[in-house]
Amino acid sequence: MPIFHQETGNFFHLQNQQLSYVIGVEREKYLTHRYFGSRLPSYHGSNHLQFIDRGFATNPFPEERGLSLNALPLETSTQGNGDHRIANYQIRLANGTNVTDFSYASHKIYQGKQPLAGLPALKGGKTEVTTLEIQLVDDISQLQMTLVYNLYEKFPVLTRNVLFENNGNQAVFLENAGSVQLDFPRNDFELITLNGSHTNEANLHRQALHPGIQKIESSRGTSSPQHQPFIALADACTTEFSGEVFGFHLVYSGNFAAQVEVEQYGSSRLQMGIQPETFEWQLNPQTSFQTPEVVINYSQKGFNGMSQTFHQVYQEYLVPQTFAKAERPILLNTWEANYFDLAEEELIQQAKIASQLGIELFVLDDGWFGQRNDDTTSLGDWQVNEDKLPHGITGLADEVHKLGLKFGLWFEPEMISKNSDLFAAHPDWALQVPDYPLTEGRQQLVLDLSRSEVQDFVIAALSQHLATGAIDYVKWDMNRHLTEVGNLVLPPQQQKEISHRYVLGLYRILDSLIQQFPQVLFENCSSGGGRFDPGMMAYMPQTWTSDNSDAICRTSIQYGYSYLYPPIMMGAHVSDVPNHQVGRITPLETRGWIAMSGNFGYELDISKQTPTDLEKIQEQIAFYKKHRKLLQFGEFYRLLAPTAQQFATAWLFKNQKEALLIYSNGLAQPAVPANYLKLHYLDAEAMYRNDATGEVASGAEFNQAGILIPRLKEDFAVMALHFTKE
Questions:
Q1: Could you list the active site residues?
Q2: What is the CATH number of the domain that holds 248?
């Protein structure tokens, strides 16, 4: 069994072929973190804990002045009795105090993994996952805290969550419910985060740890484009290709906090979970609270090694299994071609051209319902506008299907316009705080998904369309953050539960819809990457990566997101030039190669393209179809990171039969030196043929000697080389 309890020393050793994670029980009471890293054949406690009588230290055992909770490497924090570092939980008791005293009580080890109540999580069967549950009990308050660790057999991955239970007879309040805490006995790490904004998501940021707290968070109601719910700790020498890195990713779509504290004696505490300032939960007697899950990923092979693990684990254990190995269609989306100006005959003509080019999915974006002629009205009124579509959605879908295309439809189900029939009938269904004005964004409000009747409305509204069988794909959008997070239903002491209840309501809606309509492909969108997180990926196997479709911006955005997500999860479209977001003009070839590096599609007026461009589009589609398995399911490796000065980028797709190198030069440079790019990841002993030149060499040669990148006398040019294994 890969998890075992060593009675000698009282250790728990979580071990597979790639990692070991060791937990100790100190003084039969406190859970201590003893080791996390590459696999140990066994553990005997050689890295002894250090006990020093330090000034200002408080001592849980007065006679042991060297034992201080403020210096002990803990698996979960304590509260109010000496651990002054960042906390993984905080509980307010019925008497108003914030002191608890949890002690180790028992543990269970078993094969398999239990689902989390109301929350998405990685899956895994009895042969794939082993679980350790450690129960801690506060005998005074009758509270129980269970730390749950799930170790995956095939991957250097474990997950962690916490279950809080109130076994007493008085309600208490959870003010902080973190999912993971980890104390490292060192502080020489670099902190890795992915930060950004709308249309500028997933910028890689790397900085050395320093004394004090370094923190990212979202209080916007969603995981947000500002900060991905991810942090990693890496050695200063870690690169894409080598070095040690510890990655942490929260499977949650709402407010979160992820932080690291370098404390006074040089250790580092990592903590991640629901953002506490916007959270509180009334934990009544005989009830429980489940925290989201954190995926913990260990790599000895640099950032590409970490990414490969995330990619494979998410495809195998996170996304809906219907689509885990299903090829995704090439699509045409109407948004940048039509915006709100929709007419049935014109749409059918676009679909005809798309079919002739080999496109496989036609997606009708915003503007098809209510009086939706701009973004100021009709959200919530999900009835077709028959002035635009006289034969309805099913009539248009039938015509699209006759052309051999699948049909997709856009919704923004979580929103409500003030100018809508729904708001006139149910003004109380919007998130709101009594007596305060409603803050609008894009002249829309947010439906209160914490309420079951609102959840039921959304399920029914979408189900009536999906039940026709006419819709093969749904683009689910969410275009503003949450304000006035309150409602007229919950009592005052539970108003801070609404942010989390909103996320739980969203998950209930999504779970209901995918259970009813398992063959419908859902794409997640929140103005692009505003809610691109593992929680959403558990229901929707792909995400519209960014509203910024400029190819050069996308090299950076897709590069950043690839730290966590495989290309098949990243919607990437060829759009018109000048680009609608930044005004840049880039070659169609460049736009094609960058979009083919994600989940491929087009978002332009196909009826206004020149014959030459239509021919190039047809060639792009033919190439993508020929190599779809490689591009959607192959291993993806980053080779060259874009910089703000030049934007040059390179990455590699590889499977057992072939490989594809895509190199973008960014801005052309004068007086360039010879540029040799090492491919790193081809099979060293195999022979590969460069299909462009006919040159044959070993994978080792291409990996280590590299290939010459010719001088490209053009801004934003792309060179793509295909290699076939001999």
A1: 477, 547
A2: 2.70.98.60
